[in-house]
Amino acid sequence: MLTRMLRFGPALPRLLSNQHARFVSQSKPSSATGSTAVTELHPSAEASGHAEVSPFVKNPDYHGFSSDPVEDEWNMKVGFFLGISVAVVIGGTFIHYLPDYGMRQWARREAERLIVERESEDLPLIGENYYDTNKIILPTAGEE
């Protein structure tokens, strides 16, 4: 398939664009003969009085920014450079400066500070009565 496309060369965009497509109308026929109407999608250049050339025929590397090939390429390069740069730089900066989600970093620093404080006072890191036993309500044997 690729060799066939390469064989046509610069005429390929013209061959691929269907300039003389004919379509059959799906509406009800208006004439007494009852035949379906056949219409031209793109009227021929002689009928319309002027010929529009596809941007792909003038510039095979058309990017959609301008009809001038040089301006089109420069606009494409500038647009992509700025778009990627803005996305990477501003996006990376935004992600870097997001707040501490769930205060995880603060909790880690606070735990390390308490460990150092308790070790310096020769206290256990966690006491054996972590919860206040007077506030714990246990069910009676009958409620189980």
Written overview of the protein:
This protein is mainly alpha-helical and about 140 residues long. The protein has a domain at about 1-15 and about 50-60. About 45% of the residues lie in helices and about 5% in strands. The protein has six helices and two strands. It has helices spanning about 1-10, 10-15, 45-50, 55-60, 70-95, 105-120; strands at about 20-25, 40. It has a two-stranded antiparallel sheet with strand order 1-2. The longest helix has 28 residues, at about 70-95. The protein is elongated and about 100 Å long. The termini are far apart. About 0% of the residues are buried.
Describe this protein with a few key phrases.
144 residues, mainly alpha, elongated, respiratory chain
Determine the strand fraction and express it as a percent band: under 5%
Number of strands: 2
* Percent helix: 40-55%
Gyration radius, in Å: 38 Å
Q: Write the element-wise H/E pattern from the N-terminal end onward.
A: HHEEHHHH
- How far is the first residue's CA from the last residue's CA? 80 Å
Q: Which structural category fits the helices and strands?
A: mainly alpha
The main β sheet shows up as:
2 strands, antiparallel
The coarse silhouette is elongated
Number of helices: 6
Mean pLDDT: 76
**Low-pLDDT stretches:** none
Subunit structure: Complex I is composed of 45 different subunits. Interacts with BCAP31.
Organism: Parambassis ranga (Indian glassy fish)
Main location: mitochondrion
Protein name: NADH dehydrogenase [ubiquinone] 1 beta subcomplex subunit 11, mitochondrial
